[in-house]
Amino acid sequence: MKRYRVVVVHGYTASSQANWFPHFKDMLLSDTVDVIIPDMPDSDSPRCDVWHKYIEDVIKETDENTILIGHSLGCITLLNYINTVRPNPVKALVLVSGFSENTPIPELTEFVEPVLDYTFIKSAADNIISISAVDDDIVPYEYSKELAERLDSSFILLDSGKHFIERDGFTEFNLLIDKVKSLTRQF
Q1: CA dihedral over 8, 22, 18, 131, signed as positive or negative
Q2: Which of 35, 75, 95, 122 is the most exposed place for a label (fewest CB within 10 A)?
């Protein structure tokens, strides 16, 4: 029986217990799916080199049964990881409210400074999905759309959802749960 490993990297000021992450994990954890949501170090004052090393230690190895999901700062963290570690190809890379070359948050500029090899990143995932919302008030959806275009990924633009965080009442992410269930054939 295939066993899938889903790794979710949260964003700035978040944790594994914030936003939609607990519900997401509860809905997907099964005999065939492991869900790992690490608490990234010092998320209120993140450092690119520290996050990179940490996520490298968490992920260790990838394969065709690995699904990597980033939310906000977690997206560029995963892109930097793929860009430098050059892991084995994964089943899917899902980017929620992602950005790559610009950040609306000046404190996070060091995360967008590395030059990304988009051609390699595209080859590192069988499926790339980008999700954003028109009303995102933290990472403008145009940033996510630009990233999706650079990666030739599918781009899902929702009418609402803002930045997909608890502060905006976003504690369940059923669209993402359905996408992952589809990728892991849990329907």
Answers
A1: positive
A2: 122
H or E stretch covering 51 = helix 48-59
Annotation says 49 is catalytic: no
pLDDT at site 89: 97
**66-71/90-96 β-pairing:** parallel
* Annotated active-site residue in 52, 71, 72, 144: 72
d(CA 45, CA 63): 31
For residues 96 and 87, what is the distance between their CA atoms, to the nearest angstrom? Answer: 21
The CATH number corresponding to 4-183 among 1.20.1050.40, 3.20.20.120, 3.40.50.1820, 2.60.120.40 equals: 3.40.50.1820
Residue 148 has pLDDT above 90, yes or no: yes
Note if 163 is an active site residue. yes
Q: Report the Cα 177 to chain-centroid distance in Å.
A: 13
